[in-house]
Amino acid sequence: MNSPLLAVLSNVLLDNRLKKYVTGNLVSGLTHECGVFGAIGTGDWPTQVDVAQVICLGLVALQHRGQESAGIVTSEGKSARTFNSHKGMGLINNIFNDEAMKKLKGNLGIGHTRYSTSAASEEVNCQPFVVHTAHGALAVAHNGELVNCSSLRKMVLGRGVGLSTHSDSELITQALCLNPPEGETNGPDWPARINHLMRLAPLSYSLVIMLKDKIYAVRDPYGNRPLCLGKILPLGSSYAYKQSSAQHAAVLMNGSAKNGLDDKAEGWVVSSESCGFLSIGARYVREVLPGEIVEMSRHGIRTVDVVERPADKQQAFCIFEYVYFARADSIFEGQMVYSARLQCGRMLARESPVDADIVSSVPESGTAAAHGYARQSGIPFMEVLCKNRYVGRTFIQPSTRLRQLGVAKKFGALSENVKGKRIVLIDDSIVRGNTIGPIIKLLRDAGAGEVHIRIASPPLKYPCYMGINIPTREELIANKMDSNKLAEHVGADSLEYLSVEGLVSAVHYNMKTTPSDGVGGHCTACLTGEYPGGLPDDVDW
Predict the structure, then answer these.
(1) What's the angle, vertex CA 469, arms to CA 463 and CA 471, rounded to 5?
(2) Rounded CA gap, 420 and 436, in Å?
(3) pLDDT (tens digit, 9 = 90+) per residue, 226-260?
(4) DSSP one-letter code for 32
(5) Full-model pTM
(6) Which UniProt keywords apply (predicted)?
(7) Are 153 and 163 in contact (CB under 8 A)?
């Protein structure tokens, strides 16, 4: 904490990007920035694991986190000078054809799928970023957004390092090339460099960092962005999920298991979410803990350092991962996302009951909550909307015009289920309020008697500067209308939100850890305006 660079960063200023969030000049949608993935074979190299294919399939499972661009970088573990790399714009399956995959030979690699928040949607900003240092090549993939990007950029540029993009992911890559303040004796001390970066920039990121023969998995000290570990098992092994991070942590403290050594593991993977593990023959093991630096090598995994957050600060895992962004079969904090969404629906039914004939959902992310509402209320669940599976998520598209067109062609109404019915329609969230109206009209046109909207999350009222591209306060419909006025505006018979207390209670209901254990705290800044590190212009890191 005595580094002179920390003194530079202690006076954090709003850069142009963050000013736009606060002052309301940025027009943007509700989007997540990206997903990261890494894989490494264990034992003798060349590995029997097809690393590039594993990463590609892992990225396909993370496609919901970003649809603009993707990239994979691999290393054969022999040369520190060269990596194999392929990046492009568009969806995973369109970028990585057979010719591209043949070039991605390696025993380890990292990948990234992206939606832009801090930099433009251009191929130059595709990740992973690769830089060539005096000690060899370095590749980085990043999920999140640096709160103090402006001051960190000034510091890096002041050290004579050039930056070719406006992406804070490239900034992280270049910052890792700087010597730590305590110096280095026998070559680069990468854990020390990562530790130094984490103290310079405590929010918000999950990182996968690849060297010639190692991968480092890194999560910020607040645990704001998700990151988890999985074990690639031989074919025929059981793929049962571990129940909790706490259980596995206890196992890690015994004997050689502490270093992640396991004769049964053919390799290790790290991912923003666990949803793709089963499809690649991997078993979910645990989350990377807040502030933890995990080293992945051919010998297994081991924790090399843990950077603590301030003593008066709690973990601040983004609660909107549960609400919207994560896939329902992913595991966070010892529970499946689906079960948390189901409990949100139960809480919503308790808080905002209504007389109706059927409960239904806006698929897909509203479905689990709708089932919870139906079970709690005793009203039967029935599908009323037919989704076109070949249209992407409306909020993940960067242009307003594309988003509006997406609503029009995304759904059809199941008129036999709708006609004459009083419907409770569950959705996960409302941002601008310009997508739920057309859906209600669709149901009315199909003969619905009543349409009551229930939202399985609280009103979105504040912007996020930690990797979720939430619109400005002026754009958020909850800041313009209360639930009664919004119901009238969108054509609903009634509209109610889940309370903040109800959401937190639902998320904690099935957690295997509690906030009193020092983990399990959640960031609700977009709902309450209470930011983990304060507002961007008054943080005192």
Answers:
(1) 50
(2) 20
(3) 999 999 999 876 544 443 444 443 433 333 344 44
(4) B
(5) 0.86
(6) Glutamine amidotransferase, Glycosyltransferase, Purine biosynthesis, Transferase
(7) yes
